[in-house]
Amino acid sequence: MKRTARKIGLILVTVGALFWGVGGTVAQKLFQNYAVDVNWLVTTRLLIAGILLLTVQFFLKDRKQIFQIWQHKHTALQLIIFGIIGMLAVQYTYMMSINYGNAAVATLLQYLAPVMIILYLVLRRQSVLTKKDVITVTLALLGCFFLLTNGSISNLSVPTPAIIWGILSGVALAFYTLYAVRLLAHFDSLVVVGWAMVIGGFMLSFIHPPWAVDLSQFDVDGYIYLIFVIIFGTMLAFWFYIESLHSLSPKETSLLSSLEPLAAVLTTVFWLQEHFGFWQWIGTACILFMILLLALGTKTPELSDD
User: Fold this and answer.
1) Cα separations (Å) of 276 from 19, 76, 269?
2) CA angle, residues 160, 163, 167, in degrees to nearest 5
3) Start-end of H helices in 61-188
């Protein structure tokens, strides 16, 4: 029984990571071929995916938690902060980086978040800088240098706005990861993330309402891409990842989630025909190796609620 559950867990986290990575590339396709507005896409995917996650919680898990999280002012405030500064910021900055650049670079820059978390914990004196941390930070910096310059300091291989939004995406993901600990300690992940998506989508609705969109330029492929981004690249990707934690260790799920940037790079290069230079491949390898090194770590630092 345990062996079967483990196999299911391995399948779920692998498929979830691939959905995440490919979802970013499909979003790039929407921006390039259908002139989809970034604000509308983020609003729509957050609202629909959030409602679907809460629906899953209602039918398959403890439905009482869906509203219990709002019963205390402290947790309600934390949820709102997490929804806006965490969830919305992560999704928006990531999509903006894709819009200005491509999914591969955006995903790799977002995966600088673990390095930012290491530095934050060291500065807060909640962790001690180790040799592995130094190697990790070095790999991340080298990877970014080669990825963004293709080995030439004189010119950037990636548009500056894409770099800025990508780095901001990493910062947002670092905050998202650290701040989520407070809520996940008391509530199911589907409740926390589902509401965070709904909150983020609701707030962005004031800037770009989900119904204010012209889909006349969409063909069948366009609708398929849109459904994939919302259902597979957002809702199912997260759900599969969370479900895998029931039968796999966090270390194993982290290791297999490194398939996300790999999937983003491969689909961007071979499907969208984005050119990657030799040194950009070296940079990609450095960042992927950095992710693997972190995933193979033996222990995750304890985080306080301060």
Assistant:
1) 22, 45, 7
2) 145
3) 65-68, 73-81, 89-100, 103-110, 113-123, 131-149, 160-184
- Crossing angle (nearest 10°) for helices 89-100 and 38-60: 140
Distance CA 25, CA 41 (A): 14
pLDDT in tens, 49-84: 999 999 999 998 899 999 999 999 999 999 999 999
3-state SS assignment for residue 87:
helix
Cβ distance 91 to 42 under 8 Å?
A: yes
257 vs 124: CA distance, rounded Å? 27
pTM, two decimal places: 0.86
Dump pLDDT digits (tens) for 80-109. 999 999 999 999 999 999 999 999 999 989
Report the percent of the chain where pLDDT is more than 90: 50
